[in-house]
Write a structure and sequence with these properties.
alpha+beta; seven-stranded mixed β-sheet; five-stranded antiparallel β-sheet; 4 helices; 16 strands; 33% strand
Length: 257
C-alpha cells in the first residue's frame, strides 16, 4: 500500500515493505521506494504490483533513472521515458496471469508549479481508477494543485485499497483535517498508523506489511527526509534509493552507533 499526502507546504509518501508472490508472502522487509531529483522537480517514488526478476522492480527503476542523463530532463520527459521502458520490459512477463502483471509507480513532490502527484501504470486510468485488466502499454498521468484554497490534506492511495474499510475511511477523513498544515514528519507518523490499521484487515490485510518507509518533502527547505518505520527492535535502518543527475545511491543501510 502507498499513501501520499499533499499540501501546499508538504508532500509525504508512505509505502509498506511487503512483497507477495502468487498471493503468498515473499519478503516483508523489501525496499519499494526511492527519492530523486530531475531538471525541474524533486520527488519520491514508490511502487505497488509486480516484483520483477531477476532485478527487483525498485532497483530496476533506480538503474533506469540513473542511466543516459535521464534526470537531466524535465519531469514529463522522465515519466514518458519510464512508461516506454516499462512497456518494453513487461513483454517478458506476458506468460504471467493478469493479476500478477499489474504495476503502478506513484510519484509525488515539488516542481516549478508547486506540489504534484503523478503515476506510471498499466492498471490505472488517468483518474486513478483500477482497470478490469492490465494493459500492455504503460501510461503516465500528472496532477497539479489547483487555485482553490486548501482546507485539508489531499490523500492518494495506491494498492490494496480493498483493505480500507468504513471505520478506516472515517479515520482518514479526520486525519485529513486534523493534520492540515502540520509538519511533514507528524503527517508521516499518522500515515504509518493508517497503513498498519489497514494491515489488520481480516481479508485483505495479508497484502500489507506493518513495516513502512516514509519520504517527507518540505516546500520551504527543499529537503527530502526519509525514515524506516520498523515495527520492533531495530538493528539497522533501511532507506530508499536516491538518484539525481550527478549521483546515485542504492541499498542504503545505516547501522546504529
Amino acid at each position: 500500500m502507498i499513501v501520499t499526502a499533499i499540501s501546499e507546504e508538504s508532500v509525504v509518501q508512505i509505502v509498506d515493505r511487503r512483497l507477495t508472490k502468487a498471493g503468498a508472502l515473499y519478503d516483508d522487509l523489501a525496499n519499494k521506494g526511492l527519492c530523486g531529483v530531475c531538471a525541474d522537480a524533486r520527488f519520491s517514488l514508490a511502487y505497488t504490483g509486480l516484483m520483477m526478476t531477476p532485478t527487483r522492480t525498485d532497483e530496476w527503476i533506480a538503474n533506469l533513472l540513473s542511466s543516459d542523463s535521464l534526470l537531466s530532463q524535465s519531469l514529463p520527459a522522465v515519466l514518458e521515458t519510464v512508461a516506454a521502458a516499462l512497456t518494453k520490459e513487461f513483454g517478458r512477463f506476458k506468460h504471467l496471469p493478469e493479476d500478477q502483471r499489474r504495476l503502478t509507480l506513484a510519484i509525488a513532490g515539488f516542481g516549478k508549479p508547486g506540489p504534484f502527484a503523478a503515476a506510471v501504470s498499466n492498471q490505472e486510468d488517468e483518474d486513478g481508477h483500477v482497470l478490469g485488466h492490465p494493459e500492455d502499454k504503460f501510461r503516465y498521468s500528472m496532477k497539479l494543485r489547483n487555485d482553490r484554497e486548501m482546507t485539508r490534506l489531499d490523500f492518494i492511495f495506491h494498492g490494496a485499497e480493498s483493505a480500507i474499510d468504513d471505520d478506516l475511511k472515517r479515520i482518514i477523513e479526520k486525519t485529513r483535517r486534523a493534520l492540515f498544515r502540520k509538519p511533514g514528519v507528524r503527517i508521516a507518523s499518522a500515515l504509518v498508523a493508517i497503513v498498519r490499521r489497514a494491515a489488520k484487515h481480516k481479508v485483505h490485510g495479508h497484502l500489507i506489511s506493518e513495516h513502512c518507509i516514509s519520504m517527507v518533502q518540505s516546500a520551504a527547505s527543499g529537503v527530502i527526509e526519509c525514515d524506516d518505520h520498523f515495527l520492533g527492535n531495530r538493528r539497522k535502518t533501511h532507506l530508499p534509493h536516491f538518484v539525481s543527475p550527478s549521483v546515485s545511491a542504492k541499498h542504503i543501510w545505516i547501522k546504529p552507533g
